[in-house]
Amino acid sequence: MTRAIAEALAEVRHTITTAALAAHRRADAVRLVAVSKTHGADAVAEAIAAGQRVFGENRVQEAQEKFPALKAAHADLELHLIGPLQTNKAKQAVALFDVIQTVDRESLAEALAKEMAKAGRHPACLIQVNTGEEPQKAGIPPREALAFIERARTLHNLPVSGLMCIPPVDEEPALHFALLREIATKAGLPVLSMGMSGDYASAVRFGATHVRVGTAIFGARPAAAVEGQN
Ligand SMILES: *Cc1c(COP(=O)(O)O)cnc(C)c1O
Questions:
Q1: Which neighbouring-strand residues pair with 88?
Q2: C-alpha–C-alpha distance, residues 121 and 141, integer Å
Q3: Which of 35, 59, 169, 177, when mutated, tests ligand 1's pocket best, judged by the most ligand atoms within 8 Å of its CB?
Q4: What is the dihedral of CA 36, 40, 44, 46, to 10 degrees?
Q5: Is the pTM of this model over 0.85?
Q6: Which of 23, 67, 129, 210 minimizes the number of CB atoms within 10 Å of its CB?
Q7: How close is the Cα of 26 to the center of ligand 1, in Å?
Q8: Share above pLDDT 90 across residues of the chain, in percent, rounded to a whole number
């Protein structure tokens, strides 16, 4: 086992604990989602050996290549989809992932609900909110979020447990974390997925229950592979 991943994980966990305690929160109220996209199964295995159990992937196909064997070997692995999902991949996503963090439109909510009923498997769902209202970014605009959450839960009977956001790169993320928390509070949703390598300590101070950290654990990704589309 390389020491690098184990050491990086320990450092990230320490930063989470420090930020949680400073915010008068329990450290175990924050789940670390280790984002392993573009990194091989060997890197994931190292993280598992260091005690990490929750992983995030942004592409269905890449996750299908890496995770079934790892899941078979470690029954307690938890896999999160953190990238955009095409409706025609809803079936594969429901079969593989334990949490789908990127529900961002009604047709997807409907397709996921249908596949869950068929498969008898019910991954928790998060609604992605486009807190920066960026036209090129996925997610429900903040002012439509409450109505969308309500429809996803009641009309489609989707197991919605929370919200996720990816703040604009050039803005103070804290404003977006605060906005996401405000919407979740209004909707009565307990889960807040926010914060990445550059800002997860701030996200924890603003109430994140899940932080999605890739680079700070596994190192830099090849530039071309960063933005995956399903
Ligand atoms: C890649 C990715 C991350 C992790 O980003 P890092 O900056 O490497 O920590 C988090 N969230 C989403 C949605 C991602 O696509």
A1: none
A2: 29
A3: 35
A4: -130
A5: yes
A6: 23
A7: 24
A8: 94
pLDDT for 6-62, tens place per residue? 999 999 999 999 999 999 999 999 999 999 999 999 999 999 999 999 999 999 999
From the CA of 155, how far away is ligand 1's center (Å)?
31
Residue 137 three-state SS: coil
The tokens 């996209």 sit on which residue?
A: 37
Nearest to 197 by CA among 8, 41, 45: 8
**Residue found by looking up tokens 């609604």 in the block:** 127
DSSP 188-208: T--EEE---TTTHHHHHHTT-
Q: What whole-number distance in Å separates Cα of residue 81 and Cα of residue 212?
A: 11
* CA–centroid distance, residue 221 to ligand 1 (Å): 10
Mutate to test the pocket of ligand 1, among 211, 212, 215, 227 (most ligand atoms within 8 A of CB): 212
User: In the structure encoding, which two tokens stand for residue 44, read together?
Assistant: 């994931």
